[in-house]
Amino acid sequence: MKEKNFDATLGRVKTAMESGSRAPMWxxxxxxxxxxxxxxxxxxxxxxxxxxxxxxGPHVSWEFLSQPPRDTGMAGGVWPAIFGTFFVVLFMIxxxxxxxxxxxxxxxxxxxxxxxxxxxxxxxxxxxxxxxIVFGLFGLGFFVLFVGRNLDYMVYDIPRSESELVEKRxxxxxxxxxxxxxxxxxxxxxxxxxxxxxxxAQAFVAQRVVEATIPSTRPVFGQGAMFWAAATLALLxxxxxxxxxxxxxxxxxxxxxxxxxxLGSTKWQMVRNxxxxxxxxxxxxxxxxxxxxxxxxxxxVLFVGVxxxxxxxxxxxxxxxxLFEVPVVNPFTSFMHLNYHIYTLATQSPDPxxxxxxQFATTAVLVLLTVxxxxxxxxxxxxxxxxxx
Amino acid sequence: MVDATSLRxxxxxxxxxxxxxxxxxxxxxxxxxATVSLVxxxxxxxxxxxxxxxxxxxxxxxxxIVAKISExxxxxxxxxxxxxxxTGYVWQPVSDQPKLSFVPLVWxxxxxAALAATVSTIVGIACGLxxxxxxxxxxxxxxxxxxxxxxxxxxxxxxxxxLAIIAxxxxxxxxxxxxxxxxxxxxxxxxIYTDTFNAFIGALGVSIVIIPVIASLVDDSLQSVPQDLxxxxxxxxxxxxxxxxxxxxxxxxxxxxxxxxxxxGRALGETMIVVMCAGNAAQLSANPxxxxxxxxxxxxxxxxxxxxxxLHQHTLFLVGSTLVTVxxxxxxxxxxxxxxxxxxxxx
Lengths: 389, 347
Fold this sequence. Notes:
B: mainly alpha; 14 helices
């Protein structure tokens, strides 16, 4: 095989030499073109970063970072967008890391080269090639409309279709007196507990009584939410984590595994105590790249829970932890997102030119975030590959 | 090498039954984690097609190629309404009579992807060639992370950059050039450069994302060309350029071809850049300076407002099914080319 390659090379070089008298001149021209094109790409990167940071930088202030937007986003800050982006990425990584890392452990340590491993690897590479907007469609079709709607139906008895709505209406109508009585006693008890004024209590009870026989159609899980967005993004970044974890696991020398076995450890003890700790920095690199990718993608979450303008943070009512009462993040509401904020301000707002400064500032925040994450990942990987060399 | 399993069977104290079950349970758990991506890809295809195929029940297959258009015109002289039935490649999903021809969307996607792929093939191969063959090891080590950095910039940022920084100056330049050249060309320039946000701007933005992808893949495939070939070429007196262009690049050709195909696939699937700066007009036009829309852009802009269970929503799922099928086959093609190449060169 090698000789055949060499023959082919010899043939090519001979023809190259025969037409060779003018070759140096052309070579110079082509080499220069290649250099210019490469330089152009590097210059483009520098220009993009430079423009965004110089145009956005002056608008970034503490107020901008810590205040909610005002006037449907025409003024104010981006705190809820930063908050939303942070938590959706946090939930994403909490789902993607265990799945991706353990999946890669299975592929590398348990089923090396088997049929199952080949099929799974093919699935991973296919998943990496699926356009990100398709993940968005899947998030909507599967998580929100299928899982969410069915959860609503099972937990809160919210009808999924027109016929179920009719059926439920009939069911409520049949039990009207009982339901109304039940709602009345419940509401009266609650009004007494909350010590409402008589008129207020009366209105409260009346409202509850009316609501008791109206079938609720407002979805709880079956709507775009931070949790579904995080799940969608987790699938998107799963290949990133699996591939980088696989590489890190493969880099662990076989002799260490054998030494571990020789000392009498079981397979899982070997994986947990020897392989995973040694592959730690490689896995971390993958995780950082995944976070950067997750924070930078908008298309997958576009219809799975991002809100254009929602100045209130997606929090629950204060939860009692015994010592203190604090609100926690509510993953089943919509949320603001840095990417979506840029998109809506730049293209959906009535006067995009008026908010250019805000747009550049938001873009600068997002770019700094992703660039910092990537630089960290690149540095970590360099350290790691230097150590393994 | 002695197999670890057979070794363990010879141990004086074999693992206890509880330990064996624990190991088995852990392995089962790990295999479940591994199959998530398999299940995910299966579910993606299943749900997209499930939702998309419903569109065929709500409208005929032909309606997605040629839309029926009926117009009612009022003649003030005869005071009569006349209804004319025509057909056309029109995408107007939210009118009284939804017109759902995929043709303008597919055309826009192909136009932008072809333009972007052309630009990024030339520049990407040049960058890959430079990284692998011309830059020294040290410079390569610096440039490669820069390429990765360029890939990692969020696409919304690239879209915003093209919209705010590139589109308006280009418009101004075209207006200026049109005015300056008016004595010679008449209004030719303004008739060509029609829209501020057009396919060309979109394709340029998409190229920014795809160039580093292609460059990186080309670099990888050139790096895997055996050093013997270069040495042989140099030994026969070829120059660096002759070696790179006539020996290394042909030897790594399949890898380069796969990179270009993957780049084209990425361009087809690119969403936010196209939404933000390609103009979003569903029209059939061969002029790259006309506003166009793509399959991805239509899904992104219309899915939020399409009613749950409506024909519009199912049609958008059908658009998504088309997109995922096309990219699936492109990835498969690239994979096949790479496999073929691996068996030819490396073994």
